[in-house]
Design a protein that fits this description.
heterodimer; A: alpha+beta; five-stranded antiparallel sheet; elongated; B: Thiol Ester Dehydrase, Chain A
Chain lengths: 148, 143
């Protein structure tokens, strides 16, 4: 894993990833903490028939899992010496299972600080229907290059 | 007379913090979480630090409910996580939940009522290590 440094980051820099929300991953995620935040009392994550009755073409992905994967776009990029300070996500549309998603980040602001600086990044998922089901902003602290 | 739709909720619970339980960050839980979500950062997969989103997967008891009475549909609209200090394997976190605010907004698609709930994660040394804010929307769909 490479390490980005604050000195090398510019507004407009992009981060890109991809994710297909597979049913098996959704089931494993729900099983992490039965009865926890992604528990499926309505069947919308696990039951195609009940999901359809709720108005979804296919079962959907728990918002917490989608947010975890979008957060990972940033934490994969920031390297072992970066720190995620905050992430703020709006759930604009449901993510359907088996949707192929592009995960994208765009640096919108940089602010020098002691030993490096803060980077604000617009982050979102885009599906193949051109929708952005999740969208938000992450703030990451990156180190300065040694000697800079 | 205003034609603004009315909504009701229990104002007494706003801003009142409740202890919703204590959980330990175990290596087993953390490893399994990283596998399922596909974490790659060595900080999380090798050094025992919890990824930020791991905290939102911890199962605490439900917090106070302002019991908003409005509309016929409720959905999860937003999530904000603020990390104040790193969390590691062996840390014990106590959750303190509160209903932070309830407010209405009216736009082109009608009135929506928002509820913001906050969970504060406090470690074994009494230090707040993270805040998680969850926003829920209540709205009227159809007649």
């Amino acid at each position: 894993m490479s390490q980005p440094y604050f000195d090398d980051i510019d507004v407009g820099d992009e981060i890109e990833g991809a994710w297909t929300a597979q049913r098996a991953q959704v089931l494993e995620y729900i099983a992490l903490e039965p009865g926890g935040p992604a528990d499926d009392t309505q069947g919308r994550f696990t039951d195609p028939v009940r999901a359809k009755k709720l108005g979804f073409e296919r079962p959907i992905v728990p918002g917490a899992l989608s947010m975890s994967v979008l957060t990972r776009l940033v934490t994969d990029w920031m390297g072992p010496a970066g720190n995620l300070e905050s992430i703020d996500i709006n759930f604009r549309r449901p993510v359907l299972q088996e949707d192929a998603l592009r995960s994208l980040g765009l640096v919108i602001d940089t602010e020098p600080a002691e030993d490096g600086g803060r980077v604000r990044i617009d982050v979102y998922f885009e599906n193949d229907r051109g929708e952005r089901p999740l969208q938000g902003v992450a703030v990451v602290r990156l180190p300065a290059r040694a000697g800079s | 007379m205003s034609d603004e739709p009315l909504f009701e909720y229990d104002e007494n619970v706003i801003g009142v913090e409740h202890n919703v339980g204590t959980l330990e960050v175990t290596a087993e839980r953390l490893t399994r979480y990283c596998e399922v979500v596909g974490e790659t950062n060595p900080r999380y997969v090798e050094e025992g630090q919890a990824p930020p989103s791991f905290l939102q997967r911890m199962r605490f008891a439900p917090g106070p409910d302002p019991r908003v009475r409005f509309g016929n549909v409720t959905f999860h609209a937003g999530s904000r996580l603020e990390m104040l200090a790193p969390v590691h394997v062996g840390d014990t976190l106590t959750g303190y939940a509160q209903a932070k605010e309830v407010y209405a907004k009216t736009g082109r698609s009608g009135t929506m009522v928002f509820t913001v709930r906050r969970l504060t994660y406090r470690n074994q040394d009494g230090e707040d290590v993270a805040y998680s804010d969850q926003t829920t929307v209540h709205r009227q769909v159809g007649e």
